[in-house]
Amino acid sequence: MPGMMRRFTEQDQERFARLSGDWNPMHMDPVAARRTQAGSPVVHGVHLTLWALGTLIRDGVVRREIASVQVVFHKFVS
User: Fold this and answer.
1) What was the pLDDT predicted at 74?
2) Distance, CA of 23 to CA of 27 (rounded, Å)
3) Phi, psi at residue 11, to the nearest 5°?
4) C-alpha span between 42 and 33 (Å, rounded)
5) Is the entire prediction scored with pTM above 0.85?
6) For residue 78, what pLDDT band results from cuts at 50, 70 and 90?
7) What secondary structure letter does DSSP report for 5?
8) What is the per-residue burial (b if ≥16 Cβ within 10 Å, else e) of 4-20?
9) Predicted local confidence at residue 51, as pLDDT
10) Judging by beta carbons within 10 Å of its beta carbon (0-12, 13-18, 19+), is residue 43 exposed, middle or buried?
11) Of 32, 31, 15, 30, which Cα lies nearest the Cα of 78?
């Protein structure tokens, strides 16, 4: 899918943390995140999910109302 590539910046992470209230160091602090399995800051799962849903809707892949979403993350996204 052409629209599915996205780089999340530090500013994106900060903006999402401000909106969501999720300031988990795994997402925000490179030193703290280095001590996790990910090894570096990772994108908030909800942020990634909302972006993906928005992209699928924008591109016309999802054409109906969404009643629920179930997400499984197989890898960290940094």
Assistant:
1) 94
2) 7
3) -65, -40
4) 8
5) no
6) confident
7) -
8) eeeebeeeebeebbeee
9) 94
10) buried
11) 30
